[in-house]
Amino acid sequence: MLKRDFIKLAMAAVFGLTGAVAVTADAVAQDKQVKAAWVYVGPVSDHGYSYQHDLGRKAVEQAFGDKVKTTFVENVPEGADAERVIQQLAQAGNDIIFTTSFGFMNPTLKVAKNFPNVKFEHATGYKRADNVATYSARFYEGRHVIGLIGGKMTKSNIIGYIGSYPIPEVVSGINAFTLAAQKVNPNVQVKVVWVNTWYDPGKEAAAAKALMDQGADIIVQHTDSPAPIQAAQERGLYAFGQSSDMTRFGEKAHLTAIVDDWNPYYIERVKAVMDGTWKSIDTWGGFKEGMVVLPPYNPAIPKDVVAMAEEARQGIIAGKVHAFTGPIKDQSGKVVIPEGKTATDEEILGMNYFVQGVQGQVPK
Amino acid sequence: MSFDIAIATAFVVAIVTAATPLLFAALGELVTEKSGVLNLGVEGMMLVGAVAGFAATVASGNYLLGILAAAAAGALMALLFAVLTLHLLANQVATGLALTLFGIGLSALIGRSYVGMPLERLPQLAIPGLSDIPFLGPVLFGHDLLVYLGLALVPGIAWFLNRTRPGLVLRAVGENHDAAHAIGYPVRRIRYLATVFGGALCGLGGAYLSLAYTPMWAEAMTSGRGWIALALVVFATWKPWWVLAGAYLFGGMTIGQLHGQGMGLPVPPEVMNMLPYLATILVLVLISRDATRIRLNAPACIGKVFHPDA
Asked: Is residue B132 part of a domain?
């Protein structure tokens, strides 16, 4: 054969052999080490939602040392870009991939179809597959407790709520908060402003200021930056943090926060992959499982209010208190949860209406 | 709904603060574009200015140093752009976009250790007595240094461009760089200066966000304001007073829609969130109906590469 053909053939053979050796070596190495990856919707430095997930990842690294190799991708927008990122992680040989935002739901499922041997875990979603599990925290339990505090602490009886996107998780949070606040203060009104973003400090601050200008003296947020706490601190008003302890952004303003603790869950699931016992399940843990925690209460909160909040929290852990106990009416006055009943998990996951006392709309 | 003067005051004050970063960035970009350079890197320059201003203020405890650092940082980014496009003759659009991406990444990198650091807001210049007048007091007299600087830049830049010789030369370079070169004006040097000046103002716009609007550093905290500023320059048909109107319109609609939601207006929230952008697009469409007007006001040589010896 011609010399150039021979050279081409030789090169192909060399590359082929090298590739085969590399793949085998890799496969052998993979038996020993689990590769886990995380996809975050925001920056780890948001000191909020994505930050808490990353704490979980670090906990996994600490728990398993060399037996696990973790990577993460932050600032991944929900949508087509997410699919590309998840696909890349799957192709890179990760054994388990955690996609941590609601909007990653469909991209995760799409990629999961093409990688049946890779395990996927989607946070705050509701679609599963054989290799896709879902997990979330019962944030609404936390909202119930802070609602009790908010109802007692407000003087103007107007509480401002900064909503991100009108998904059931956010809506149920608003409802849980309002119901609890009304339990201790029937005159309270919760005003909702939608900012259509999980993380935008400028817009969140503007929304907080607008709500405070409208008379709100407590700000609650379901967005991830500490900007609303800062805005409340500037005006000498109160606020509840989101996803992590935001005290240092407003020491006087920060009453408490709803902190997500993903550490135990992540360690458990990575261990399941290591042991080969991983199954697609749905996990929805709250105070009881330690997935929702409240950081230390602001000393400005009166002791009897703290006692009431703690009693509620313990009640939820014991199963005696439920955030959605009937009768619950929606904004039009219709009874959606009758007296004596509590909302089922499905009803909470599909909540698309506001309860009475909420000023705002749920876009359909 | 009864007219509450306190809410009205707070509303107008909020509009002023929301419009200021846009005003700085758009004015800077206006000067750059008037000289014929299209710098799309506004978002990147704003972010680098924001992180530099924040870092310098935290490190020195002095807000003025922070403001200067922000201007310098924005100017340096613009200088990089200028070298690439005016000396190395790279495509301005592509380089500007690259500058944006570079600025986003660089600011995130520099800002890593500054995330989560609280900072006191840039102090407001309260004039005792005047600031207490109901409504007019806080609206006119209760703002910080950067707000007043931004407002002063509008007549300043308008006067410079339209009433001074150097301004005329700058506009000439933007209209017909070959003719300007033939007359003997240093086209490249003028464009360098205009670009660097524009970058400095963009840096100040970013600094306003990180020092006054939300006194903290957060990745990508400009959230697209740089792009809005670019649109505003066209919206204003390259006239400084119209830039002021555009910035206040956009800022006004942003704050207005939040207040509207807070008041319980029966408009779907998604529509409310779209309003600022819709308003800007609407005005752009209205202006562009008259193609001649755009043609007359746009610097004729914008974005074109200048070959000194061609």
From this structure: yes
